[in-house]
Design brief:
By secondary structure, the chain is of the alpha+beta class. The chain has 3 helices and 14 strands. The strands form 4 sheets. Strands 1, 2, 3, 4 and 5 form a 5-stranded antiparallel β-sheet that branches.
Length: about 300
């Protein structure tokens, strides 16, 4: 093989120039490729960053919707609580409500007393005032009055109750009933109807107290038949009984007893009378055990004196 030598300076210079141009072109092309790779990397990093931001924004939107739903639920709850708060009530309105509750209970007499118990006090936007109200009335009437307060005064709470029996009382005036009432009011309250409000579709309905006197006796009346009742031995008053004598029925001693109204009873040993029971029957006396008495002896008598109590 024949080796060629390029000793011509012009040729050598041309070859060298060509090689340098090729090298420069290669370097330029490599730099451009590297620049494109760097640009692609930056674009990918930017896309990843934007994707992360988008996911964060989506999570924040979901969280915002959840917060909006919670706020709506809290607003409904607050509205319901405001409806449950007692509306403002001045003293004149309070008096009318108490008078209405009393009239609906059958109490036709005015207040025996009405007075504030303490100065009004306010805490957490709720003002509390305390009053003391008294009536002279019957036991059942007063019980109905207390029950009626839940309807006529939903703002009030009974804090104290005192019953004092009256001597010689008639069914309509057997006691002096005193009730202490704490009356609540708030400027945040919303006027409400009997349905207080709903939370998540569930209604809360006010249930009022009621009182029925059917079959119940007034404990402040002296023992004895009540109006409209037939007298019985068990309901008789021990202080108004007269022992008339003893008879024998099938060999069993039987006492004949009469009350001050002229009603008669026949009793055997062990039978109940005036809240107690017969423990002995003789021709001379009738022995009864009753609450408050260990033994009460009623001597035989034939001529009662009207209004006189037999010792």
């Amino acid at each position: 093989m024949v080796k060629r030598k390029f000793k011509d300076p012009v040729l050598q210079k041309a070859i060298l120039t060509y090689l340098l141009a090729f090298l420069v072109a290669y370097l330029i092309l490599d730099y451009a490729v590297l620049s494109q790779y760097e640009t692609a990397d930056k674009v990918e990093v930017g896309n990843l960053s934007r994707m992360a931001e988008l996911q964060q924004y989506s999570a924040e939107i979901v969280q915002a919707e959840e917060l909006r739903a919670e706020i709506a639920a809290y607003e409904a709850r607050i509205d319901s609580l405001r409806r449950s708060l007692p509306p403002s009530l001045n003293e004149a309105e309070f008096l009318r409500a108490v008078a209405t509750a009393a009239a609906n209970a059958g109490i036709d007499s005015p207040f025996d007393s009405f007075e504030p118990k303490s100065e009004p006090r306010t805490e957490n936007n709720v003002t509390t005032r305390e009053y003391e109200v008294s009536f002279i009335t019957g036991y059942h009437h007063f019980a109905r009055f207390i029950a009626n307060l839940s309807r006529n005064l939903p703002q009030a709470q009974v804090t104290e109750l005192t019953l004092i029996g009256l001597s010689g009382g008639v069914p309509e005036r057997t006691l002096r009933g005193t009730v202490a009432l704490a009356v609540y009011s708030s400027p945040l309250a919303i006027e409400k109807t009997e349905v207080i409000g709903t939370i998540e579709g569930e209604g809360e309905v006010v249930e009022y107290l009621t009182y029925e006197s059917h079959g119940r006796r007034d404990p402040f009346l002296s023992p004895g038949p009540q109006p409209g009742e037939s007298p019985t031995a068990h309901s008789a008053n021990l202080n108004n009984l007269f022992y008339r004598g003893m008879i024998s029925v099938d060999g069993v001693p039987t006492a004949l007893v009469e009350d001050s109204a002229g009603f008669g009873f026949s009793l055997k040993v062990g039978e109940k009378i005036a809240g107690g029971k017969v423990i002995q029957i003789t021709a001379e006396e009738l022995i009864i055990s009753a609450p408050g008495w260990s033994r009460r002896a009623l001597p035989v008598t034939t001529t009662p004196v009207p209004g006189q109590q037999i010792p």
